[in-house]
Amino acid sequence: xxxxxxxxxxxxxxxxxxxxxxxxxxxxxxxxxxxxxxxxxxxxxxxxxxxxxxxxxxxxxxxxxxxxxxxxxxxxxxxxxxxxxxxxxxxxxxxxxxxxxxxxxxxxxxxxxxxxxxxxxxxxxxxxxxxxxxxxxxxxxxxxxxxxxxxxxxxxxxxxxxxxxxxxxxxxxxxxxxxxxxxxxxxxxxxxxxxxxxxxxxxxxxxxxxxxxxxxxxxxxxxxxxxxxxxxxxxxxxxxxxxxxxxxxxxxxxxxxxxxxxxxxxxxxxxxxxxxxxxxxxxxxxxxxxxxxxxxxxxxxxxxxxxxxxxxxxxxxxxxxxxxxxxxxxxxxxxxxxxxxxxxxxxxxxxxxxxxxxxxxxxxxxxxxxxxxxxxxxxxxxxxxxxxxxxxxxxxxxxxxxxxxxxxx
Length: 409
Hints:
Blueprint: E1 9-13, E2 17-20, H1 31-34, H2 64-67, H3 80-83, E3 89-95, E4 101-102, H4 103-117, H5 135-146, E5 149-152, H6 157-182, H7 189-199, H8 205-215, H9 218-233, H10 245-254, H11 263-270, H12 281-296, H13 311-316, H14 336-369, H15 375-381, H16 391-408
Parallel strand pairs: 3-5
Antiparallel strand pairs: 1-2, 1-3, 3-4
Helix pairs in contact: 4-6, 7-8, 11-12, 14-16
Region (Disordered): 390-409
Organism: Deinandra increscens subsp. villosa
Pfam family, one: Transposase_24
């Protein structure tokens, strides 16, 4: 339970909303405030194939098993401290402006999602593609996530999309882990299945046999060869381990009075080893160019969301659709430039609607207190005009259309 003491925990009440147990996690939470206890007998808990609740074990970064020798640890991640939380409590996860989780709570969310997709009763490893997993199963797991976590500042479709994507990524990683430690062409399918299911209670025998059978097909073997070849061609690898770029950027900002790093600064950070060396020669060239831009620049840092003219784009070029390097997988429309314009228009529209609403409230107050007042005369002295009914919609539409015309020019 010690891990949870550092997290921002809130308590929910059936009819009275949410009670915050304290301020942000940086202020700390006392054990007396936590009130973390065992869940009720009806609450869902992780179980093995025999129906027994799995014992709590320490966290172990299993992803390392895919890329190299397994990390020496005390067992696989189970997050039993989260499973055993009181049913009225939620871990409050902060998401950044791109809809990506940050902070220690973000780490716990990611690891918890990892435990969900490794449970055979939640999602089968028989599926050949995450897109073929029934939506209901994904929704059921999302409900389990919401039973343990709440999202700040507010739950959005973008956050839900990220969680679904994280589920898919961790599900694929789980299948990769099983293959990396179980596949042996000298053994039969049944021998591999028996060996793996005896060593890991999370592996369903029927599901795993179907997966192992697929490993031996020519189509799967050819795919593995192609992916292995592509992997060997990868350059400029990052050295941040399992920590997401969003969490890393957040940590860097907290150490810099809330000022977030540029993408160039993120690149340098993520390609520099602990001993100060750069991961490879190509990355060294990029780092040298980025440092030269920083040292020769006399301007301010500029817009942190400008992915077209920032330091990194000057060295590495424009972004591809649907992905912004050193940020993560975020929704992008047509191009990053178009996306930024659309975001600006949406923000301006919200501001206009807010100001228009406040203006209407002021007009109503004047009419209430001065019934016979000539509003046109009063407002003309203020260089304002009485709005017509529905003008809010007109102004919003006009602003959006004007913005589109500017974009096209």
